[in-house]
Design a protein that fits this description.
Strands 8-9-3-10-11 form a 5-stranded mixed sheet, with helices on both faces. Mean pLDDT is 84; it is low at 1-25 and 31-58. It is built from 16 helices and 13 strands. The chain has a domain at 194-237 and 301-411: Alpha-Beta Plaits. By secondary structure, the protein is α+β, with helices and mostly antiparallel strands. It is globular. Pfam families: RVT_1. InterPro entries: DNA/RNA_pol_sf, Retrotransposon-Effector_Assoc, RT_dom. This is Transposon TX1 uncharacterized 149 kDa protein. Residues 133-411 form the Reverse transcriptase domain.
């Protein structure tokens, strides 16, 4: 009877239909078959504690907003800015809806995208009116932008709150609005995002970033010159993005006041409740951060992360950060980004290490994206271990060895070695 009840719970639990990761589905099934519910033996007290932590992550820290001056922002063209805020069309809405996965789990509204696809002819006029009103006011009501946070166990014997993976379930109507906006934004990102960023920009692919990184490391090794690679981990990257900073960056990059108002409307109307054993526990409004699962989030995060690139390029321009010299033209390369996966290439000069550390500290303070140094690593090229350990101590990170995994593929290994057998 217990097993039957647990399996019914699995089938009815919406997030498992939504998650494309079969591993988490497998773990959840095993977890329930062992006689656990989604929270298992966790008491309500630690769940409330985690909720308090989550609320803290969703609220903006106190302090005056910062503005950044003196960077090359590469603003979008006036034509692109006008195109972004043009009236929404029925064809645009139709295309967005039918590009979406019809069976992903619903949010608080209870509707899947399949409802909008199957009932398109009936509801299309109402949807067009919704978009027209949003175009005029830039406001999304709170019920449309409500979200459930669901906790999925990362492993079978999950006991601590850190053993669970939070997933956001968003209403389908909001996802449609965000999908249309994301489609427009994607079309202009190539104008303003630096070439060191490989994610969510048309014409750039994940394999490009991996190949470039391997070429840079291999050439440095062959040259016999000393150097270091610094791979960082942002602490809860999406959760900590400052909305004020994002708005400032959009302004500097040439986005119109109306578009910025739309983005603010999409973000400021967000509210969350944590689902515990299928029941919503409390609601909290967000004042910072981007939601996982929001079609806009990857593109907005890319815009924020681009500021780090611009700051590093300014440091190179002022000759306070060297980077690696690669290619026949000795082109200087200091970093590569793929969404929040960032690696830095630096000389072994202590001055460069301090410059890099200070840039990361300043960027974290103004953007909210702080580096988790406990999960960040530095790797030496043609460098003695003692020297590498000293540099790691300066950066407050770990000194590690090659090869490493970068975007899921080996970086810095011997191409003839067995380490590349996974390919």
């Amino acid at each position: 009877m217990q097993e039957k009840s647990s399996m019914q719970e699995i089938r009815s639990f919406p997030v498992l239909q939504m998650s494309g990761n079969k591993y988490f589905l497998k773990v959840f099934k095993e977890y329930c078959q062992d006689g656990h519910r989604i929270i298992g033996r966790l008491s309500w007290k630690p769940i409330r504690s985690s909720g308090d932590q989550r609320r803290s992550a969703l609220r903006s820290p106190s302090g005056e907003p910062w503005r950044v001056e003196g960077l090359d922002w590469s603003p979008i063209s006036g034509e692109s800015a006008s195109r972004l805020e043009s009236p929404f069309t029925e064809e645009e809405i139709f295309k967005a809806i039918f590009q979406m996965d019809r069976d992903k789990a619903p949010g608080p509204d209870g509707f899947t995208i399949a409802v909008f696809q199957d009932c398109w002819e009936v509801i299309k006029e109402d949807l067009v009116r919704v978009f027209a009103e949003f175009h005029r006011s830039g406001i999304i009501n709170q019920s449309t932008n409500a979200s459930f946070i669901v906790l999925l166990p990362k492993k079978s014997m999950s006991r601590r709150i850190s053993d669970f993976r939070p997933i956001s379930l968003i209403t389908s109507l909001y996802k449609i609005i965000a999908k249309v906006l994301a489609g427009r934004l994607r079309g202009v990102l190539h104008e303003t995002i630096h070439s060191t960023q490989g994610a969510f920009v048309q014409g750039r692919q994940i394999l490009d970033a991996v190949l470039i990184a391997n070429e840079i490391v291999d050439e440095k090794r062959r040259s016999g010159e000393e150097g270091v690679v610094f791979k960082i981990d942002f602490e809860k990257a999406y959760d900590h993005v400052s909305w004020d900073f994002l708005d400032h960056v959009l302004e500097m990059k040439g986005f119109s006041l109306r578009w910025r108002k739309w983005m603010r409307g999409c973000l400021s109307s967000v509210s969350f409740a944590v689902l515990v054993n299928g029941n919503a526990k409390g609601w909290v409004k967000a004042s910072r951060g981007l939601r996982q699962g929001d079609p806009l989030s990857p593109f907005l995060f890319t815009i924020v992360a681009d500021v780090l690139s611009r700051m590093l390029l300014k440091a190179e321009e002022r000759n306070v950060l060297e980077g690696f010299r690669v290619g026949r033209n000795r082109t200087r390369v200091s970093h590569l980004q793929f969404a929040d996966d960032t690696i830095f290439f630096s000389s072994t000069r202590e001055e460069d290490m301090m410059t890099l550390k200070n840039v990361l500290l300043v960027f974290g303070h103004i953007s909210g994206l702080k580096v988790n140094l406990d999960k960040s690593n530095i790797y030496g090229i043609n460098l003695e271990q003692n020297h590498l350990s000293r540099l790691a101590e300066m950066l407050d990170c770990k000194a590690s060895g090659w090869p490493i995994l970068y975007l899921g593929l080996p970086l810095g290994g011997n191409p003839k070695a067995v380490a590349f057998g996974i390919l």
